[in-house]
Specification:
Elements lengths: L2 H5 L20 H7 L11 H11 L13 E9 L6 E9 L2
Antiparallel strand pairs: 1-2
């Protein structure tokens, strides 16, 4: 599942009596922006932290099937002699 699709996931009430979604149709991206935790998307183990936050707020955790298994980073390398910048993108997959 693409990250953009994950962020648009509509949140659902959890099993606890405390908190819950702020309003009908609240999405994950809305929750992360309101709580200033959007940065967790880019961090290793961030999806687990997001689910812990959702649970603390009385919101049902989200299943992040593919997001936990793979991530990528982009590296920019400059050749000193030619001053050209080369972009390399690597994908890592957990098994």
């Amino acid at each position: 599942m693409k990250l953009s699709k994950l962020l648009l996931t509509e949140l659902q009430e959890g099993d606890s009596n405390k908190g819950g979604v702020s309003y009908a149709g609240e999405r994950l991206v809305d929750f992360l922006l309101e709580t200033n935790y959007l940065h967790l998307i880019d961090e290793e183990g961030g999806f687990d932290e997001i689910n812990a936050l959702l649970s603390e707020c009385g919101i049902k955790p989200i299943d992040f099937p593919d997001a936990k298994r793979s991530w990528y980073y982009t590296m920019y390398i400059q050749n000193p002699s030619s001053k050209m910048i080369q972009r390399q993108q690597k994908v890592f997959t957990k098994k």
